[in-house]
Structures
1.
Amino acid sequence: MSNKNKIINSIRENVEDYWSEFNKIEFDPSNPKINLHEPTFGPDEVMAMVEVMLSTRVTMGPKVLGFEKEISEYFQVSEAITNNSGSSANLLAIAALVNPLTKNGLKAGDEVIVPALSWSTTVWPLIQHNLIPVFVDIDPDTLNIDPHAIKKAISEKTKAVMIVPVYGNPCDMDSIMEICSDYNLQLIEDNCESLGAYYDGRLLGSFGRIGTYSTYFSHHITTLEGGICTTNDFELAELIRIIRAHGWVRETKNPQKYYELFPEIDKKFLFVNIGYNLRLTEVGGAMGSVQLPKLKSFVRSRRNCARILLEGLSKHNSVLSFQKETPKGEHSWFGFPIIVKSNSPFSAKQLRDYLESNGIETRPIIAGNIATQPAVKIYPHRVSGDLKNSSNIMLNGLAVASHQSLSEEACSHIIETIDLYVASFISK
């Protein structure tokens, strides 16, 4: 064994010892604490990152390219382009679609239908590129964009639909794809909270013209910070690669064609479009390659948590409701949504406060009705319908954990805590 390998093995042993002693994720009934998220990574990922750092090759190299190839194979799409965040993935997707070089692209003033129950960086790239977001309501059962609301919102200016499968619950893709086909609308899939979710046997991200994902540290798998764009459109993918890196061509799959077109410009600094610096690091690529094979097991654990919570909390259906899995869908449960019904003797805020006081972390469901945010009101947009379901989720919804490290004992603690709280009102 070389001295290099001896050193690496020594580091690995130390990392494993440290992890087992200081980074255990165990539920302690005497001091219960249930975080919304727990790290998906461990010693294998740490060592992958260490070896990259020791190599001193830290940006856009073979690790990133290898991870992108693995993603494209996993999702059964021809092109996967990594970047530095899910927000950047959405930014790149929209920037590419509105670019003058994109065939059948979008143009300033075009309308894009989006669910009101969504996240800021679903909407901001549309506004930043002079597109008009059109907010529509959600289905109160699945919490996803309502296909009937999409249809009602279509105008002469409507050119695309951008969907957000809430917490990993697939949208009604049959209905949405039919609408897009009937009205010649492009489909953009914002799957940043939906890694590992399926509809009718197909992974989300393989239906639309382009799909996006996040690999942020709290998501299904992580590259610490990171995002992914998936598409079967090679020219669109190449443009995303260009925009991702300053407008350079050197990270495209076929830079030679640009070198031949512009031989008078030094190929080291050939810019053929505008762009950003949104590249994933080699550290992220190495980590992603270790994480991706674990995705299925992580999702199985999340689905099991959700099953336990649904079964245990169903007794409270008179005062609480829960997200319903879309028919033909396989939910990946980024979180576990709970909605306090209007007839309940307590409010969502009261339930949140009680859960937090008992060591159970909570959060709003996505960002609630994003159309009500002050930032939206500054810019051109359109609202179709009353958005009552989205507003209800904002006012009366919350989410608790359903992550890969949540034990059955921890799930039971969530159930028992809610049981006690509901019982305290019933007994009055």
2.
Amino acid sequence: MNNQFIHRRTKLAENLQSGIAVIPTAKEVVRNKDAHFPYRFDSYFHYLTGFGEPESVIVIIGGKTPSSILFCRGKNKEKEIWNGFRHGPEAAKNLLHCDEAYSIDEIDQILPQLIENKDTIYTPLGIDASWDQQIMGWLNQTRSRVREGIAAPEGLIDVRGMLDEMRLFKDPSELDTMRQAAKISAEAHVLAMTATKPGKYEYAIEAEFLYHFKKNGSQFPAYTSIVAGGQNACVLHYIENNAVLNDGDLLLIDAGCELNGYASDITRTFPVNGKFSGPQKAIYELVLAAQSAAIDATSAGNSWQAPHDAATKVLAQGFIDLKLCHGSLDKVLENREYFRYYMHRTGHWLGMDVHDVGNYKIDGEWRALEPGMVLTIEPGCYISSAPDIPEQFWNIGIRIEDDAVVRKDKGCEIITSGAPKTISDIESLMSS
């Protein structure tokens, strides 16, 4: 087991002081009748353990003698025949280097004892009502023993805020995994471009990159993929992926793989027939210029807002030049006229979750970017048909998205550069 998990638990224990953290993994979810969705662990739990089995809880105790205690499924020969290997408490304890480990069947007996005389319980709150109820049951059980001289925790705090700040800064091992996930995803986008032809269906192109994800060790797509041809690209979270691809349309693909718990997130937009039209070129070059400005602004010491402001200014001026917006740049920015064509932010944190954890503001102010943060940079332009819009721009939806690591020195590292995004590179690839 990698020492990074021990280090994280130790750091969390220090922050807990005399409190106790109780963090469950995700539940298995029924898809239909007795068939389940593919299992994916909870990100917080996995961040602290690297343990992938369901029905598990990690307990971390702070104070003078910090410790880690794991609850997991017990060994069961019959169930292992049907559903696969289980580590069991003893093997899991050794694997994770925990101080103690017990069967999950014992948690109702043991957990109330563990929270005795602790100041505060730290746990994920408000995610799962049944878990909240379970926590309150253990807490009330401890409270009922007050006449025995046992003190129950007085505080109940959501542990996610503490863990979010830890997860926001990626260590070298995390960054290596994210670079590999980005590489696999960039390769998949190349395959999607070369496979795209008029008359094919969106789902056929989706199959190309999903195959590449799995073939190269990815366990899951990092999110539901968007494969949006023509006017479908103007729907920001289009996921039907069932339409035919028409000659003369653009295809927007927003897709990335998850590798060992870490997400990648790439969007590319390209012509179905391999050649951009004049109006498509004009909008595409504008979005690309906006992304370039945002990348230049993604640097340690700059605020989180800086890339968004940089991209928005470029887009707003471009909309004015193309007669999509009217008036001065200051006016278009002030009255948010650009919002009709660009209605989302320029990026988000990226990590174990595709829209990863971490505050964007501190004390009401946009936080400064710092080394080790990972974010997406994804400006776009979405022009639906309307009487007051030149017809040549109708149903053009374009987004260009890359993943960036904030460096110690100036600037950022784009880890998704393997996916072509200049017009010349895209057209050259699709013609080969």
3.
Amino acid sequence: MDSKSEKLKRNVKKDILSNGLTIITEEIPYVESISINMGVRCGSRHEAPGLEGMAHLVEHMLFKGTKSIPSPSKISELIEISGGSLNAATDYETTVYWCRVLSEKAEESLQLLFQLITEPLLRPVDLELERKVIIEEINSVNDFPNSRADVLLDELMWPGTSLGRDIAGTIETVSNLSHESLVRFIKEKYNSNSVVISAAGNLNHNEVIDIVGPMSETLNVSSDNIFNKINYTSNKPTFIREDRVTEQAHISIGFPGTSRDNEARYALDLLIAILGEGMSSRLFQEIREKRGLAYDIGAGTSHHADTGVVNIYAAVDSKKYNDAVHVISEEVQKLKTNTHIEELDKVKSLYKGRMKLNMENTRSVATWNCNQLLHGSASGFQSPEEFIEKISQVDLENIRNAASQYLSEEDMNVAVVGPVNPHDDPYQI
């Protein structure tokens, strides 16, 4: 099959086949393993109304057997028998199937991953089984108050949108997903233009092409999958409470963040690391160590194609959740004027060290390279070294600007799950 080749950073090679499928490899000759990611630009944001949960259901169904390997246990055994691992995950914008195996298992592992999408059995009896499994998965999320708080926060921040609902769908939508719609969804969304094969380890780039190329010819050739973009609009601070009998009140606080392509993301990531990453962070020291308001507290960021989110979470004494929310809010606002070079240098070192350590693992390398191409960044392929350089360039002015732009009190959304007093709200809403 014809292809368009490109040599990227480090020992990375990329080919786009004539049907649009992308193959990227990074040769690491001194290891004995190979990690393979098969990523698809298809997540919960690509679901039409009435199909909520379909992307996640597809992920489950593809492991139920192929024409070549009809037994689900045999699929797992093929990878696990020599110590390898196999799994998949669905998020808002992508689904990724991956394995890590010994190098001598590369060919059959590549074939297996591709068979999952090119020759799935999709038996109706398996659909009914997996439907029940996913419904129990949804129930289990609702059983955990911390997870439930996150779900409520998403609904609060992104009402009526694809980001405002669980990736797995709802019990109602999953119950109504038909076999016909399942088959059609795979045919439409799992097309050659939307698939990326990323492999890292002791491998040969051309051999990967030779294996994957002929198998990809059975895929439907179509344009890239698209979804509706979201514009966040804030009116005032919002609050939602769900009374539940638990030992603690579980708090999830959200601010709208940046998209992946926004240059401000680097400053925002570092800023939130200062706020809530690890035991030396501001929130941990102020909320837990000094005031004893929470046992578990932290903060992080997520970036999507069009927007993002800053999330702060805490588990507190139910009688003190109001105090905790106010103290958290105070600590957030301090970031706008009171940040120090020592803090910035510390989190820069954290990010740089973490990236370097991750890139010694074939799984992390394959995932990084896959994500760079799956998400179609406007800036193109970014190497780990280029990411580190972006982090290095962030200064205190960038940090304070990010705090002022993205951490407005008017954009603060709070979800609480636990035995809370209905008259004791952080906001009068």
